[in-house]
Amino acid sequence: MVEPPATTPVRRLLLECSGACGDLGTFIPHVIGAMTVAGLAPAGVLFGFAAFLIATGLFYGLPLPVQPMKAISAVILTGGLRPGEVAAAGMMIGVVLLALSVTGWIGRLARAIPQSVSAGLQLGLGVLMGVLGLKLILETPWLGFGSLALLFALTRIPQCPAAPIALAAAMIAEWATGKVGIASVVAITPGTPPLVVPSWPEVWHSFQVAVLPQLSLTLTNAVIVTASLSRELFPSTGSIASERRLALSSGLANVLLCPLGAMPMCHGAGGLTAQFLSARALAFRRSFSAPCCSSSRSPSPITPLRCSRSFQSVRSARC
To answer: Considering the entire predicted model, what is its pTM?
Structure first.
């Protein structure tokens, strides 16, 4: 058997950092928007993501992402939700996910949702977030377009951690010029996560405008598609991320952390692909290789191209 080339500790660290930052492009705008628009406490939001990410890594042992729930985040950024309504949405979805996981109905219910519903939701949210992102870029075009150009240029360099470098360069440029003041908008001070207790009017309003649009998106993209993609990318270990376990972990995280000011969170197929491809899959070919039909043949390593094709096939398949 032909062994893949070993990677040095420095290169492995760079690839780990690049993979960890692969999903920051969607993470940062949603989190900053939740803090500035909805007024969520930074301590609660950041503590929630930190706790869920650490627990996910320890339990699954896979680069599964933890993301804000996109439909709820879109409502926060466009229509506005109060902290109590955000907490109510996360807790309600968490209870639904726990119930579906414990009863085993998660697979059947998710497969019963038409693919067109999920695709329409994702398309609408994608357009909405794209327009919002363009508006934010036009507010400071020198920084927005400059960061975008730097990111595209860095992605052309093999084994380059493009996302963290572009992010660091944008922050340095912002602080050096003093023309953009995110720090003045989001004042992060030491503190403990606040306890958020939603009222009944907040629960009802959140159920109408946030929970109903989010449920089908969570069941398909965050549970069914993520589980399928995990098994495809990691044939030997990906089965641990089953539909039932993904629903269970997301449900527990939202029920326990949203009352402490966390955003509604879930896993996601797009984030898994982003983190996997950002690391270039070079330092992990030995661990993440798929066996062939015959044991006498060498395993076929998962390359970024194969990962991309697998992701497209999973998304186009009816779940």
So the answer is: 0.70
